[in-house]
UniProtKB/TrEMBL annotation:
This is 2-dehydropantoate 2-reductase. The lineage of its organism: Bacteria, Bacillati, Actinomycetota, Actinomycetes, Micrococcales. Pathway: Cofactor biosynthesis; (R)-pantothenate biosynthesis; (R)-pantoate from 3-methyl-2-oxobutanoate: step 2/2. Its EC number is 1.1.1.169. Residues 173-314 form the Ketopantoate reductase C-terminal domain. It catalyses: (R)-pantoate + NADP(+) = 2-dehydropantoate + NADPH + H(+). It comes from the Bacteria.
Length: 330
């Protein structure tokens, strides 16, 4: 099958390498140093899912209609990427692999000539070099649409992608999106401090702030009537525990989560963007919690302050110490 990957970053590049290893014809898009590196030296995969060298065509845009397309760009780049490929993707099933909420719904408004479905990457990967991707923490890819059972298009796409990496078509995809949004609350603190996810969750002062932001996210989701979905053995009741349990209990759960990530530093997608000098997707993560809180008559002051701090780091290119963070948010 011909598979098109729009955005061969950490997640898109990992999927591209794995699907090429599975024997499919893969074409991808990239920009800047990453584009040049893959064009000149191919794409190298390493980490939890083994090593592989993928020699795939890559450019600023796809050149041929694929049988299945995956949109793996940040939320803020979604519209531009789809408009560039509008005619090429006519009638092509599109999988939107993205953090935050409503990515597939936004894409469906532009991709009107074919089925559109969302995807949640519950694995952690980074780009140790422009032409390389590394899987730090393995996990499945979840596909679906809306709050009902998975469509046949999602089932078919999951079956195909399952040839390269663990993939599951799920019902109640909206609930799974919200669960990932809650989990992604651990992404912002590394972007503010420059520390790994493990280091921020090991610091009791920073862990307390992360727990507050999770409390807000869970409260907003419940106020919207969201039924949280299960992610890789993380049951909905655990998210409920993080959202409402006494601080010592929630703090212990977060500390255990940090330890489960292993010894290889996990930076999170938001810090990775800052290190590359690119805009982050913080407005679609913690910012989404703030927006949804206002929509249901609630407030999310910790998430709002976190969004502001991440934007300050984006503009100043200078991280805050844990002590400074505590003074602002503690």
């Amino acid at each position: 099958m011909r598979i098109g990957i729009i955005g061969a970053g950490a997640i898109g590049g990992t999927i591209a390498a794995l699907m090429e290893r599975a024997g499919h014809t893969v074409e991808a898009t990239a920009r800047g140093a990453r584009l040049a590196a893959i064009q000149n030296g191919g794409l190298r995969l390493s980490g939890a899912w083994g090593s592989h060298f993928a020699q795939i065509p890559v450019g600023n845009r796809l050149t041929a209609p694929p049988d299945l397309a995956l949109l793996c760009v940040k939320a803020q780049d979604e519209e531009e990427s789809l408009r560039v490929h509008e005619s090429l993707l006519e009638g092509v099933p599109l999988v939107v692999v993205q953090n935050g909420l409503d990515g597939a719904q936004r894409a469906a408004q532009l991709h009107t000539g074919g089925p559109t479905m969302g995807a949640i990457a519950f694995f952690s990967a980074d780009c140790p070099a422009p032409g390389a991707v590394r899987v730090l923490v393995p996990g499945p890819l979840y596909l679906g649409t809306g709050s009902s059972a998975p469509t046949q298009d999602a089932v078919d796409a999951a079956r195909l992608l399952g040839e390269g990496l663990p993939t599951e078509a799920v019902g109640n995809f909206v609930g799974h999106e919200w669960s990932k949004l809650v989990v992604n609350q651990i992404n912002a603190m590394p972007a503010i401090t420059g520390l790994s996810v493990q280091a921020t969750l090991a610091d009791p002062r920073l862990r307390r702030i992360v727990l507050k932001s999770i409390h807000e996210a869970v409260a907003v989701g419940k106020a919207q009537g969201i039924e949280f979905g299960e992610l890789n053995g993380m049951p909905p009741w655990l998210l409920g525990l993080l959202g409402s349990a006494p601080r010592p209990v929630g703090s212990l759960v977060l500390r255990m989560l940090g330890r489960r990530l292993g010894h290889q530093p996990v930076l999170g997608s938001t810090l990775q963007s800052i290190e590359r000098g690119q805009p982050t997707e913080i407005d679609y993560l913690n910012g989404a919690v703030v927006a949804r809180a206002k929509a249901v008559g609630l407030s999310a002051p910790v998430n709002e302050a976190i969004v502001q701090l991440v934007h300050e780091v984006e503009h100043s290119h200078s991280y805050y110490t844990p002590e400074q963070v505590v003074r602002r948010l503690g």
